[in-house]
Amino acid sequence: MSDQTGRKEKSRVRVTVDWIVGCTLLLIGLLGFILPILQGWIFILAGLAVLGSHSRRIDRLNQRIRTGLHMLRKRLFRSRRPSAPIPDPVPGVPSVPQSRVAAPEEAGWTAPPQC
Q1: Is residue 92 part of a domain?
Q2: Is the pTM of this model over 0.85?
Q3: Which of 25, 49, 62, 93 is least surrounded by Cβ atoms within 10 Å, i.e. has the fewest?
Q4: Collapsing DSSP states into helix, strand and coil, what is residue 87?
Q5: 36-66 b/e with 16+ CB inside 10 Å = b?
Q6: What is the mean pLDDT of residues 35-44?
Q7: Within a domain: residue 61?
Q8: Is 5 a domain residue?
Q9: What are the start-end ranges of the H helices in the chain?
Q10: What does the buried/exposed string (b/e) look like for 71-80 if buried means 16 or more CB atoms within 10 Å of the residue's CB?
Q11: Among 26, 54, 53, which Cα is nearest to 40's?
Q12: Please, which pLDDT band fits residue 21 given cuts at 50, 70 and 90?
């Protein structure tokens, strides 16, 4: 059997089995969030992957989750390049880094009492 686009139609048995497996994986994933011995997110992603082949809405949700995880991974593991060093104002005389220079008030110093 094939439709007008030339793709084979999936049998009702296959679709039914996929829905049962996908929903079962989702339920195990939800239990995994409650029980400390299971990793729930793995089962939820597997259930969404199985169900995504039969439902456009679930496939869009799966794509949104993948995009969000990709953006999170990029944000967490982006390269942290050090900033360019500040050139010395006077050649040959090293300057004190700005992070180490503090105003007396910021360092907790107070002016001596006036006599």
Answers
A1: no
A2: no
A3: 93
A4: coil
A5: eeeebeebbbbbbebbbeeeeebeeebeeee
A6: 85
A7: yes
A8: no
A9: 12-34, 40-52, 56-76
A10: eeeeeeeeee
A11: 26
A12: very high
